[in-house]
Amino acid sequence: MSDHQSNNINALGLSRRALLAGASSGVSTLAFAAATPARAAIVNTDFRNLPPYGNVTLPAGVRARLIPNVNGLTVNILEAGFETPGRPLVLLLHGFPNLAYSWRKVMPALAAAGYYAIAPDCRGFGRTTGWDDAFDADPLPFLAVNMLRDQIALVYALGYRKTAMMVGHDQGSLMAGLGALIRPDMFPRLTLIGGGFGGTPSFPFNTANGAPVPTIQKPTLMPSTPSSIRRDDIIRTTGPARKPTRT
Question: How many Cα atoms within 13 Å fall on the side-chain side of residue 245?
Answer without folding.
Answer: 1
